Amino acid sequence: MRYYFVTEILNERVVKLCLALKIKGHECVCIYLHNKKSQNFSELELNLIKLNNPSEISSYLRKAKPKLIHLYSFGFDATCLEIINNLCCKLIYEPKDVFKGVMNLNIPQEIQEGQIALLEHSDGIVFRDFQPHLCAKENNISLSKNRLYLPDLCWPEILNFKRKISFREKNDDKIKLVFAGNFYLEKQNPEYATAGIIHILREVVKQGFEVHLYPFLHNNLEFTDAFIEYNQLELNNENFTIHKALDPINLINEYQKYDFGCHMFQGEHFHGLPTPYEHKEFGKYGVSARIFDFIAAGIPLVNSSSFKLINRLLYKRNCNIIVKGDELKLLHNKLINIYYNTIKLSTIYTSYKLRIDKRINRLLEFYKKVLE
């Protein structure tokens, strides 16, 4: 059977699933829109089809006559609407972000309601974190009975990934931290207040860490006024470096140069910041793909204690350092005194145990169940 994935924006989640299915001997087609936010995965030799608009996607699928479509969406978009209105086949819905009651963004009402309709009435839901459950809780809705929890997980061993295993010298006090993400500033984008990582960066630079910053490829923030405070921080500190944005696979190769990958929420460490756009319990329900990229690179994770779902996922795996709200100013002392090489080995081991291809049979079984 050929499996069809549809997404407006091609990103690593969909590509990981297609690659894992290919490794297991299955044929996949991934259809996506011509969109500047789509990432580049041409070197993976997958069947990726780029079309110009949602109607072209539905036209292509009507000719292909798939039995099942795996619809991946950043929330709910025009492609979702086109498919549910024009195609008669089993529909698996996988939202990256869930809006109503979960994210306080200026999202049109019809989009929020369309997403809830899919959460309730699609033939099945695949969820990478528990945002849909938080949405159901906040809006008193019932999710589709067919549900599969499948976290992002780590990349399989891929052609251009070059494993490099390095350890720290016992008395080396120079610790290299890496941050990656959407680095919006509250001054320019107050609606994205949770991304105000500038406060944490100033603190860790002050403590003497060597700090490296990788913006996500799709937003080009480093070329706008929205990046001015980061540029100023780099200008004034030789231990802080902003790197050019890279595609996901090259990013993982780059991460191997550093000691820790950081995923921290400044709201836990600083007061007086704008109200975040995410639900106050988001850390209990949501997770970011970048944590698995750090682990895939074999570098331990440093994360805020408010990311409770991350801590549950990595419980007893000894590959992350949890930083509580009052510990940021003592972070250097905390990291210099751990047995780094032990946690490094645990992280490399975890990167193999949490590979997506090792769990992909669960998705195949779910497809089979939906088709029955």
Which key phrases capture this entry?
372 residues, single chain, 14 helices, 6-stranded parallel β-sheet, alpha/beta
How would you portray this structure in words?
The chain is of the alpha/beta class and 372 residues long. It contains 14 helices and 13 strands. It has helices spanning 12-23, 54-64, 78-86, 109-121, 131-139, 198-206, 228-236, 248-255, 282-285, 290-296, 308-313, 331-336, 340-353, 360-371; strands spanning 2-7, 27-33, 48-51, 68-73, 90-95, 124-127, 147-149, 176-181, 210-215, 240-242, 260-263, 301-304, 320-323. Helix 11 links the parallel strand 12 (301-304) and strand 13. It starts with a strand and ends with a helix. The mean pLDDT is 87.
Q: How many distinct helices?
A: 14
Average pLDDT for all residues: 87
**Share of helical residues:** 25-40%
The whole-angstrom Rg is 21 Å
Secondary structure tally: strands: 13
pLDDT < 50 stretches: none
Hey, roughly how much beta strand do the residues contain?
Answer: 15-25%
Strand order of the largest sheet: 3-2-1-4-5-6-7
Q: Biggest β-sheet, characterized?
A: 7 strands, parallel
- What is the N-to-C order of secondary-structure elements (H for helix, E for strand)? EHEEHEHEHEHEEHEHEHEHHEHEHHH
- Net shape: globular
Give the helix/strand class: alpha/beta
Report, as a whole number of angstroms, the end-to-end distance. Answer: 14 Å
